[in-house]
Amino acid sequence: MWEYAPAPESRDIANLKPNYRMFIDGQFVEGAGEPLKTVNPGTEEVLAEVSTAAPADVDKAVKAARRAYDRVWGRMPGSERAKYIFRIARLIQERGRELAVLESLDNGKPIKESRDVDVPTAAAHFFYHAGWADKLGYAGYGPDPKPLGVAGQVIPWNFPLMMAAWKIAPALACGNTVVLKPAETTPLTALVLAEIIQQADLPPGVVNILAGAGDVGAAVTSHPDVDKVAFTGSTEVGKIIQRQLAGTGRKLTLELGGKAANIVFDDAPLDQAVEGIVNGIFFNQGHVCCAGSRLLVQESVADELLEKLHARVSTLRVGDPLDKNTDVGAINSREQLTKIQQLVESGDAEGAERWTSACPLPDKGFYFAPTVFSNVSQAMRIAREEIFGPVLSVLTFRTPDEAVAKANNTPYGLSAGIWTEKGSRILWAAQKMRAGVVWANTFNRFDPTAPFGGYQESGFGREGGRTGLEAYLDV
């Protein structure tokens, strides 16, 4: 056996500052709100103090965005907008290592995920949408589609930089200006993205970034001069926003929670499926709205698959997010850790069989060992509620029809996975699954050219691809 040796990335690369300010009208300014302290979930240390917005700051940011839209950005030819968006993409690449380390410090995700997934995908979204900026007339929305105006955007804490790119890039490509509110617990990479936007000489007011808690997000989404709202987060908050905007005529896209089914048929390549299952639920500590948190396994292979799965999960390393050998990092906050613990206790109480990896956990920080529940029934909370953590619920089925029925037995509908060697079965099942994204013999694959979004309580609208442009155009 090889002895494990830590391989930590240097935190100095993050260029961490003691204080961060909001970005309004091309300048970094102090907000009138109560400053917040952002915490490293891996160590519980305070990383920095962040200036937050008051209602007057939100109003100032929206006015700056409106001014920039009316005078500069909305009138600018797409070929000129593209130059700025390309420049942002290249600067993200140039500062990629800094952004990756800062993301892992502020969010708790493993550095190898920040470095290899979050940062490259963020840059890819800007590159992709820069290419659309001068081709909108060929996107299928009429010969000369127009932008909407000012977009108010609120993003979650699980993919802070990547979600900012998902929101900002299409809005800019379509000619809109932006007021973005990052999550309260993870504002730092969004504010460094503001530095990049300033470095790219984007005209003042085109992008404004305000830190703060839920009240700041509510002030952005309810502002009367915002033409379009895009929200990624909890279903509960999404419903509040939808009620706020009902009847106003303003455009809305919501990307909300999920409880994805990952179906393994008896002819699936089991070793490959195990890797996909692990990636589907333990990637980013399970802090993924489209995580494959419900595993549906055909009865005839259930025992064999569970044995392989336990063996594979036992090899996952939980620990320091900056260690390049870490597979599962820190839970983002104490509040989220408490929620995970409560739902796991409900699984115990309702009679599911719990298996938890024996991996050692650090003494400090918010950590939870990878956990697999078997003998789960559809009525249990762990099969119905989004846990948003490294916890997998395993159910079994006998026939393909039963698998689809159980997969669709959820109020959500964001994603799903299918594992089988038969192409006809993949196509049959994918047609019947009520999910916005269906992966076949893989999981958690994202590409800026492919639309992403859900049904039912997972929201509506699409982000990414040609389809995602519609949300930011008057069509």
DSSP strand count: 20
For the CA atoms, what is the radius of gyration? Answer: 22 Å
| CATH homologous superfamily heading of the largest domain | Aldehyde Dehydrogenase, Chain A, domain 1
Strand content: 15-25%
Q: Using the coordinates shown, work out and report the CATH topology of the largest domain.
A: Aldehyde Dehydrogenase, Chain A, domain 1
> Low-confidence parts, pLDDT < 50 over ≥5 residues?
none
CATH architecture of the largest domain: 3-Layer(aba) Sandwich
What's the average pLDDT?
A: 97
Q: How many individual domains?
A: 2
Output the structural class. alpha/beta
- Quaternary state reads single chain
Shape, please?
Answer: globular
Taking strands numbered 1, 2, ... along the chain, how are they ordered across the largest sheet? 14-15-16-13-12-17-18
Can you tell me about this structure?
The chain has 475 residues and is of the alpha/beta class. It folds into two domains: 11-255 and 455-474, Aldehyde Dehydrogenase, Chain A, domain 1; 261-440, Aldehyde Dehydrogenase, Chain A, domain 2 (3-Layer(aba) Sandwich). It contains 15 helices and 20 strands. β7, α5 and β8 (177-181) form a beta-alpha-beta unit. It is globular and about 65 Å long. The relative contact order is 0.14.
